[in-house]
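agent> fetching stored inputs for the flavin-adenine dinucleotide docking request
agent> found them:
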Amino acid sequence: MREFDYRRASDVPDALALLGAEPEARYLGGGTNLVDLMKSGVERPALLVDVRELPLDRIEATPEGGLRIGATVTNSDLAAHPEVRRRYPALTQAVLAGASGQLRNMATVGGNLLQRTRCAYFTDLARPCNKRVPGSGCAAVAGEHRNHAILGASTHCVAVHPSDMGVALAAFDAVVEYATADGPGEVPLAEFHLPVGDTPHRETALPPGALITGLTLPPAPVAAVSRYRKVRERASYAFAIGSVAAALDVRDGTVHDVRLALGAVASRPWRAGAAERALRGGPATAEAFAAAADAELAAAEPLPGNGYKVTLIRNLVVAVLTELAEESRQTEEAAR
Ligand SMILES: Cc1cc2nc3c(=O)[nH]c(=O)nc-3n(C[C@H](O)[C@H](O)[C@H](O)COP(=O)(O)OP(=O)(O)OC[C@H]3O[C@@H](n4cnc5c(N)ncnc54)[C@H](O)[C@@H]3O)c2cc1C
Ligand code: SF4
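agent> prediction call returned; pasting tokens
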């Protein structure tokens, strides 16, 4: 590992100034991804600017009725927060489905969104990878791509974004807030991770040097009946090979509101807009759920080794929406 300096930032302007003064600096959250990448030589920062002690560790209600989540809130604290559990249960479930208890205690919200891909070629310095070395090629397309993307990929990169938390945040229209030396900014999570195109090394819409300060979740009454379901290769802890975050509000058998996002299918948490449009105002039946999944997956372009994901996601969407339809029916009945 390259030798590096370490500084702990005292406040947001200090963090921005420390990073701005060293071109090869990186912010350090929990370090659970960055330090691994430093060990493998993928990341070689000259300076780590530790942001974990910044006063960005609160979860607060917004005047509009949503929640604001600070960037240094740990995954564990986010999952355990009573208002997150009550108002956005799929977010709690998504966070708890990720990593292990020890990792969640260290990992932060900002770092989770910026974690890098888990494509094995990305961390293998002997293999070509357009994300690591732009223009060098992609070893995964003709190689091992079983866990890779089926939606929105390109021949330049087929890696998926590994975050579970991000999938629930995408379903609930989260907005990412950041600070730069020129002032604050924000970007919807749906636009935060960039489409792959021919520039897979450009991963997010964050301006250079920007510090993520937090996230805002708008009020979403539908989220009270929501669920995150993740399929992985072992139960203890593992990244998703497919996941679904969904929320459903059914009234008199008709879909009144729905939110749907998919994980481990694309380079970004995938908001399933086509499926949502197919469902809104229609019947809450298994047939309608399957048709909606098909509408979303019509754009899928699987590679030879990952076509199974199309069936997996279709089944997952139908199963989760069927469960939520029943839960919504019970909630409706209890309210009468
Ligand atoms: C064994 C293992 C299993 C895992 N399993 C899962 C899983 O199943 N699901 C899942 O979702 N995740 C999983 N993870 C990933 C884990 O959730 C991430 O490593 C973690 O969320 C990253 O957060 P961090 O705070 O440690 O980020 P760091 O490692 O500190 O940083 C990651 C990146 O974010 C940048 N950064 C950090 N904070 C900020 C900020 N505020 N503003 C701007 N940039 C910032 C850093 O510079 C770095 O580039 C796993 C990790 C491991 C090691
Ligand atoms: S899929 Fe992306 S991350 Fe993996 S080798 Fe290809 S370019 Fe690199």
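agent> quick read of the result: The mean pLDDT is 97.
agent> awaiting further instructions
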